[in-house]
Write a sequence for this structure.
């Protein structure tokens, strides 16, 4: 059973990541799920954006798994984020015919962040996800 504290955080995070999806993906679907751990909590953020244009079809799927361990002071938390992006697209042009392309990329980062009223867990996780997706989009 999810603790009341995490359930409240989960509801707030779903609202925040709906806005994230609107800003960065011009819509799409997102879900944020949390669960308690013995020392902290963990969660997953799922984002899906599909496009179905007349000449190009495609889909972007992001899976972000985060593990949060709060330090004894309560003001610092250690975040471990593992992110996978899966991309698929299909074009159909008269000159080249149908082309399918797909791939995935998984990356991981760990970071200690201050936790406060100004920068709660949702903001910290949001920044980590944003930084990770930027990194994944522009990886060569």
């Amino acid at each position: 059973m999810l603790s009341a504290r995490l359930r409240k955080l989960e509801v707030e995070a779903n609202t925040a990541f709906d806005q994230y999806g609107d800003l960065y993906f011009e819509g799409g679907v997102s879900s944020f799920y949390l669960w308690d751990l013995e020392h902290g909590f963990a969660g997953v953020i799922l984002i899906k954006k599909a496009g179905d244009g007349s000449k190009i079809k495609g889909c972007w799927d992001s899976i972000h798994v985060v593990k949060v361990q709060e330090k004894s002071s309560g003001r610092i938390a250690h975040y471990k984020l593992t992110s996978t992006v899966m991309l698929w697209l299909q074009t159909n042009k008269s000159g080249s015919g149908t082309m399918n392309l797909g791939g995935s990329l998984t990356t991981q980062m760990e970071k200690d962040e201050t936790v406060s009223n100004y920068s709660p867990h949702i903001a910290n996780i949001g920044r980590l996800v944003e930084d990770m997706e930027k990194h994944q989009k522009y990886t060569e």
Summary: The longest helix spans residues 4-25. The mean pLDDT is 91.
